[in-house]
Each structure stands twice: as C-alpha cells, then as structure tokens.
TrEMBL record:
Pfam families: SBP_bac_5. Keywords: Signal. GO terms for biological process: peptide transport. It comes from the Bacteria. This is Peptide/nickel transport system substrate-binding protein. The keyword Membrane does not apply. GO terms for molecular function: peptide transmembrane transporter activity. The keyword Signal applies. Residues 1-26 form the signal peptide. GO terms for cellular component: ATP-binding cassette (ABC) transporter complex; periplasmic space. Residues 76-413 form the Solute-binding protein family domain. It comes from Nocardiopsis aegyptia.
Length: 494
C-alpha cells in the first residue's frame, strides 16, 4: 500500500504564507491602481499557446478572443465575427468584424483570421477541438470561408473554443504561438514569468466595452491551501477552485458554488496491463463507492455520477438505463498503479479513499501523485493502469460530442484510457454528424452508453467548483464552462 504523510496544520500554514509572499504583489500597490490580483490553480503547461489547454487562461483573462462566443444556453453568438451563414453541408462563411485592433497595433482582417485558423488546423498535434475535423480556411474581402471535409453542424461552436483564438500574425513564429502582446481583448499580456506569474494591462484601444480595471496580476498557485489563504489574508482578490476542505475557514460571502459540467472520472488503461481484461475493469467498477467520495472528500459539495454527463447538462438525465453490464472478475491481488495530480486539491484525497476501496476489493494499489504539468505526458502515453481526472465535458465547443471524441475515439488526442472500440467510434461518428437539437442530444447519450459499456471510464462524481472573490470584487464571471473570469465589467470597489 502506498501512503502519504500529512503535514501538521502549522506546517501547512507556513507553507501557504511562503507561497503567498513569493507569488503575490504587495496589497498596497494593487489597491493604489485598481489592479486585480488573481490566484490561478494551474500554471501554464505549454507557454500559454492557445493551441493547448492554456487557451482557457487567455480567455479567462479576456486577452484573446474568438470569432464566435457562446451564450449561457451554449448557443453561438457574434464575437470577432458579426454573422455567419451555412452555404451548404460543408461550407460556412463568416463576416469578420471591422475596427478591431490587436495589441501589437495591427488590424483584424479576414486574412488575419484565416492565418490563425489555418495555423491551428495544420498544427501537430492539433488543438483538441479539431479532433476528427479536417478544415480549410480562405479569405476574401471581409469574408472568411470555412470548408470541412465532412458535414459538421458544430462549426460555429467549434470556432468559439479558446483554442481557436485569433491572434495577430506576429504571434506565429515557426511552430510556436506567443500571445504576449498579440491578442485583441480588453487586457493585454505584457509580462509572463514562466510558471510563476503573469501581468496584464488594460488595452485602451479595445474595440468593445473598455475594461474598468487597470490590469490583472496573475499568480499561479497549484497548492489549494495557499490559494485559500491568499483570499483570507487579502493577498488575492479572486481565487480559482477553493478546496472544499478550506471553505469553512473563509467568510461565506466570499465563496460562490458553481455547478460544473465537470466529471471526476477514473480512466482505465485498456491497451496494456491488467485492464485489457473487461472483467477486471468491471471489478473496479463494482468496487467504487462514489457516495463515500462525495460525503468524505467533497463534504457534500458534489453529486454522485450517473454517467459521464452531469446535472449541469439537464438533458443528460434522459439517458437510458444501463443493462447487462459485464460481470466482474476476482482481482485476486492484481497489482495496479493509480495516478492523479495535485493541482485540484481534492484529487489526492480521492486517490487515497479509492485506493482503500480497491484494496478492499482485492487489488494491490500503488499511487503516483504529481503536479499535472509533470504527469500529463505519462498519462496520455498510457504509463499508468488507472488515472483519476477531473474533466470538463463541454469545455471545448459547448457540446459533449467533442469531449467524447477527444477522450474515447481511436484517434482521440486525449485518450488516457487508450480506448479503441468499433462500437464506440461508430456511436461517436453518429453523434458528431447529427443535427443540433433533440436528435443530436439523443445521439450523444447513445455514445455515452457505448463508452460506459466498455468500463474504460468510470464516472464517479460531478464537481461543484468553489470560486473565491473578496468582498470588494465586482463583476467577476462565475462560468460553468470555465472560459470567463475577468471581464470588462470586473473591478474593485474598496
């Protein structure tokens, strides 16, 4: 059995103070110029390139923008494009907004937008939002034409993904994309200090509503205790993902509980190791007590998972009941590696509770726990038998089919379970091509059922994320999709 030795409370408090002292600007300096201090959970993993998950930091800071945005219902709305038309099954045209200036002083044109999208489409690896999608982009005048190899009803939603942000042409150099000084949003990135901090200033030539705050001072603080302490002591104005264990130490009016389309899932490696056997995967399925995780680790601030899609997606409740699951085999002392990451403070504790449940069922468990930046590559390469992941299910396009294709198709770029199943791929293809509305939702639920039938991914619970805002913060976004945080309206009222 793998054990973790807990630090005493005094040591944790001291560590938090040291982290805050190193990471955060002086509170007096922040207050003097109306700058907003933000404690982010995860540091950049790919140099803030928008082609990676770092893109969601750029959108949460309102520095990079997309042609399309999503409203609360997940429907596409104008962004850097003012309107669009579906010409035929595979062709869409978008009218590019006039009067947009990038942070480097250049103007947005259809050619600029085409350059950004073409770069993303030809990248290796592609942004996750383009998994299974082949597209070509052309520009003429103020019109952008997007042509897909196959019919894709989700083109506008795909173009809303922060991974397809439109940056100035100066951002693109060889294979690299640099968002520093090349976005178009109300805040401009002026400094990035590796994985420690970033600084953004208000961009006075912004095409839309000007930012009310003078700027944003970002600190990357993976330690959840340190993030909570930063809010409590006034070192940070806004804090991402406050651990549930820290909630009782904070003033109630500084916390907002946001139901998330995010599922805590156990991925099992189907390509090599003990979980190539479906019966052994089924033994893990039967061993998991999700209610114990919700009650013990999340202190009731989560929902037991009925499937991959949770209560933040209301129509998911219409899923059919699962029938005839594969019978569990006897683990009989089978050794397995169970891995997760520290950036989400609850996950190491989930791993500890889950380890005990699996050992009670007859497995022999070894834990591997690191920061996400240091474990993602190994997880995607199939180095672990089991991996606990907190996964946003509509993060990319506002549509779960994109997440499912990325995570569970044979060609998916985020396929931690190493799953390649003909029935799953067929169901995902049908879901991906179905027209929006009731027909598409039914196809997505059928794809979910096909995935669950493999027991390669075992959904355990749906999270409710705690966002921390000091009482003097006005107008921060509480976004279930985790695309928005600081908006032009966000400011400090001291």
């Amino acid at each position: 059995m793998h054990h973790h030795k807990a630090l005493p409370g005094a040591a944790l408090a001291s560590a938090a103070v040291l982290l805050m002292t190193a990471c955060f600007p002086a509170a007096e300096e922040e207050a003097a110029d109306g700058r907003i201090s933000v404690a982010m959970m995860q540091p950049p993993r790919s140099g803030l390139t928008p082609l990676s998950d770092d893109a969601f930091k750029l959108s949460r800071w309102s520095t990079a923008e997309t042609l399309v945005v999503l409203d609360e219902a997940g429907d596409p709305q104008p962004g850097l494009a003012t309107d669009w038309t579906q010409v035929d099954a595979t062709t869409w045209t978008f009218t590019v907004r006039e009067g947009v200036t990038f942070h480097d002083g250049t103007e947005l044109t259809a050619d600029t937008a085409a350059h950004a999208l073409s770069f993303a489409a030809q990248a290796a690896p592609k942004p996750r939002i383009l998994d299974g999608v082949e597209l070509e982009v052309d520009a003429e005048g103020d019109t952008l034409t997007v042509t897909t190899a196959d019919e894709d009803p989700l083109v506008p939603q795909r173009l809303s993904s922060p991974q397809l942000s439109i940056l100035a042409e100066s951002a693109y150099d060889g294979d690299a994309v640099d968002p520093v000084g090349t976005g178009s949003g109300p805040f401009e990135i002026v400094e990035v200090n590796g994985t420690t901090s970033a600084r953004l200033d208000r961009f006075d030539d912004y095409w839309g509503e000007p930012a009310q705050a003078a700027g944003i001072d970002v600190s990357f603080v993976p330690d959840g205790t340190a993030r909570a302490a930063a809010l409590r002591t006034g070192e940070a104005d806004i804090v991402e993902s406050v651990p549930t264990s820290q909630a009782a130490l904070l003033e109630e009016d500084t916390l907002t509980e946001v139901p998330m389309p995010r599922t805590n899932t156990l991925y099992l490696n189907t390509e090599q190791g003990p979980f190539t056997d479906h019966g052994t995967r089924a033994a893990v399925r039967d061993a998991i007590d999700a209610q114990a995780l919700v009650d013990g680790v999340y202190e009731g601030r989560a929902d037991v998972a009925e499937g991959l899609l949770g209560p933040a997606i209301p129509w998911a409740a219409e899923r059919p009941e699962r029938t005839d699951p594969v019978e569990a085999a006897d683990p009989d002392g089978t050794p397995i590696t169970l891995a997760t990451f520290t950036d989400r403070a609850e996950l190491p504790e989930v791993a500890t509770v889950l380890e005990q449940q699996l050992e009670d069922a007859g497995f022999e468990v070894e834990q591997v726990v690191r920061e996400y930046a240091n474990i993602e590559e190994d997880a995607l390469a199939g180095e672990f038998d089991a991996f606990i992941l907190s996964r946003a299910t509509v993060l990319d396009s506002g549509d779960p089919a994109a997440y499912m294709t990325s995570d569970f198709s044979c060609d998916g770029s985020f396929n931690i379970a190493q799953l390649c199943d003909e029935d799953v791929d067929a169901a995902l293809e049908e879901a991906g091509s179905a027209p929006t509305g009731e027909e598409r939702r039914a196809a997505i639920l059928a794809a979910e059922a096909a995935i669950l039938d493999t027991d390669a991914a075992l959904p355990m619970l749906h999270e409710r994320v705690l966002q921390g805002d000091a009482t003097h913060v006005v107008g921060s976004a509480k976004d279930p999709r985790e695309r928005l945080l600081i908006t032009p309206q966000t400011h400090l009222d001291r």
